[in-house]
């Protein structure tokens, strides 16, 4: 990671003009590209090489499109002082759909094999998914914030970019599940289930961890101590919610299963709201002015 240049003093709004994802002098830019293209091949090619019906593809695209619109409206409603550059938001989305999904798939396979050797196959999803998926998404936030650090970054940058990384992950995951369906009715049914149960959780979890990462990086920009320990609870909290969400299958009681899912969803939303409030306060301290919707 190259050293970031402070873009503004306290109370002065940063000037993001000209800040784009195209940064050929930034090593992170080339490193990210080197990961995105092979990851796209790993995640996208198998979907289309297996043979997909035209109606199934249309239905899956419709489901993903509706989900993407809803998640975009959530980001648009965030009370932030300034808008993050569109190219960096798109970059975050692409990372989530390619590198985050691809690396999580590979690491999950390794984790599953290791847990099976230890006789813990039953707990494979609960243990491996929060670790592999949440960390792979957080690395995407790190990549985006590194490119964004040419200007002064705030906690809200981490919230927004984290949300987009998680959004990309969730949309690609939904596409993968819906395209596995055998007919149009099943495709729509799977899409409806994923739009009701657990919808948006990947975006919420990554936004929370991204907020803490942006906080630490913003302190480094100002020549202060990074307080990297803040990352631990901000990452562990969403991982705990993730593990909780994946755990109902371990129990036979339907009441307990529903209670666990409700607790996980409620806890995830609470963490996200706390991250947004933190980001709003950071925005005001950095930039001043009135929040924009």
What does this structure look like?
The protein is mostly helical. Helices cover 72% and strands 0% of the residues. It has nine helices and no strands. It has helices spanning 27-49, 54-76, 86-117, 124-148, 155-179, 184-196, 201-221, 231-246, 254-287. The radius of gyration is 19 Å and the shape is globular. Residues 1-15 have low confidence and may be disordered.
The H/E string reads HHHHHHHHH
Number of helices: 9
Overall SS class:
mainly alpha
Q: Indicate the radius of gyration in whole angstroms.
A: 19 Å
Low-confidence parts lasting 5 or more residues at pLDDT below 50? 1-15
Distance between the termini: 32 Å
Mean pLDDT: 88
Helix content: over 70%
Let me know the number of strands. Answer: 0
Strand fraction: under 5%
Shape assignment: globular
Biggest sheet: strands, sense, closure?
A: none
- Quaternary organization: single chain
What is the fold's blueprint, element by element?
Blueprint: H1 27-49, H2 54-76, H3 86-117, H4 124-148, H5 155-179, H6 184-196, H7 201-221, H8 231-246, H9 254-287
